[in-house]
Specification:
By secondary structure, this protein is of the alpha+beta class. It has helices spanning 3-14, 21-27, 33-49, 69-77, 89-101, 106-113, 118-126, 149-154, 166-173, and strands at residues 54-59, 62-67, 104-105, 130-135, 143-147. The strands form two sheets. The protein has a three-stranded antiparallel β-sheet. The chain has a two-stranded antiparallel ribbon with strand order 1-2. Helix 1 (3-14) crosses helix 3 (33-49).
Length: 183
């Protein structure tokens, strides 16, 4: 590996969060952007080609070294890694609405879900998954909510465009037809 790739590896290993390309560039300001991109590719290829248990992934606008998915369950079972707190069904529903319709007001979310969501919004905000992204134009200029980079990290997404499209969700959620019984 090149010295720049080794430097990036050390920084990514030391960080508990994704590091942006700009932050990686600050590690060695004399290097060109092309050299930085080549070092990132070299590091990613190093983990992929040599069959390591970790991989370099682009998440939430940054880069992070993560455990490969096939080893996650065993590591969690052995309680070697901090397990992220699970989200309730209500929190997941609310988060999905915000992710797909952002920016969106509390009243709009409550209209879609048909229930009050004050506690759920507070919980999602405290976890850093959502934030106030502005004010609406309607009566009282309601707060508008959107997802945060922590949301992208939590779901291992590079950007919101990686969310499944609505038509893909309809297919995934379709109840399978009962098997026909031949007599």
């Amino acid at each position: 590996m090149t010295p720049l790739a080794k430097l990036l590896e050390a920084a990514l290993f030391a960080s508990a969060r994704p590091i942006t390309t700009e932050e990686l560039a600050a590690l060695s300001p004399d290097e060109s952007r092309a050299a930085l991109a080549a070092a990132i590719d070299e590091l990613r290829e190093h983990y992929d080609v040599d069959g390591h248990g970790v991989e370099l992934q682009e998440i939430a606008g940054g880069w992070q070294i993560l455990t490969r998915a096939e080893y996650t369950e065993a590591i969690e079972r052995a309680q070697l890694a901090a397990r992220p707190q699970r989200l309730s069904a209500a929190a997941l529903e609310t988060l999905a609405i915000i992710a797909y319709r952002q920016p969106i007001s509390r009243a709009e979310i409550e209209e879609i879900r048909g229930v009050a969501i004050g506690g759920v919004l507070k919980s999602l905000h405290e976890r850093g998954l959502i934030d106030v992204v502005g004010r609406g134009e309607g009566l009282g200029r309601p707060l508008m909510y959107g997802t945060t980079p922590v949301f992208l990290e939590h779901f291992a997404l590079r950007h919101l465009e990686e969310l499944p499209r609505a038509d893909e969700l309809a297919i995934a959620l379709r109840v399978p037809a009962p098997a026909s019984v031949s007599e």
